Amino acid sequence: MYANSSIPESAQQGVHEHLAQRVAKHASSEFRKPYLDYNKAAFEASLAGWDGKAPLILDAGCGVGHSTIQLAREFPDHWVIGVDQSEDRLSRKKPYPDALMPKNMVFVRADLVDYWRLMADAGIKLARHYILYPNPWPKVGHLARRWHAHPVFPFVPRLGGRLECRSNWNIYVEEFAVALGLLIGREVKWESFEAPSPLTPFERKYRDSGQTLYRCVVELDSQPNLEHNPS
Ligand SMILES: C[S@@+](CC[C@H](N)C(=O)[O-])C[C@H]1O[C@@H](n2cnc3c(N)ncnc32)[C@H](O)[C@@H]1O
User: Which residues have a Cβ under 8 Å from the Cβ of 27 and sit 6 or more positions away?
Assistant: First the structure.
């Protein structure tokens, strides 16, 4: 039955007690896992159609890609990349006729653990970066599977731009904000929000089930903590 999805159930009632320690460890150690060839090829493929000048948008974990298409329509002068590890989701039929599909976007199948690092290592900067409804991994023992507690997370803010994470689990978004704040050295806010026009199928399902949606949005390129030096 549609619109009966539930909020993740967890014994965890607040930010995980080991989160800060985990983030600090990842920030201070090098993540050296070798890149897999298929991720390198996907990275190249995702930039093959880019003119090298258009601002970039990354839809990380785009699922069936509806958000990627909507973003490409909303930002026609940007190059929009939808990345997901699931070929099955990426290849599902889109709710647009082929003739109306935006030309300023591409879908690639890749593991974000490699893809994010390849982007950062190439010195690529994003204009906008979306992590929409990532798998919540709500069990206490699954902290390390949440993106913000994964060793790859320090690479995410290095990509710059406007970063947005959305979830129907408030604790995920609060942890995301805490972890990001630790990495960038300033407070990161999070909030509940309304989604009158849902960007993704998960967002639509949660909204139609009457759930509260949460998001964390941060402008990574602004540096409000820099002291003004009048000289
Ligand atoms: C809950 S779904 C959300 C999909 C979409 N953003 C939405 O809101 O409809 C999470 C997505 O993240 C993708 N994902 C999980 N781990 C990934 C990884 N390591 N690399 C790439 N995609 C991943 C999954 O395949 C899945 O499509």
Answer: 154, 182, 183
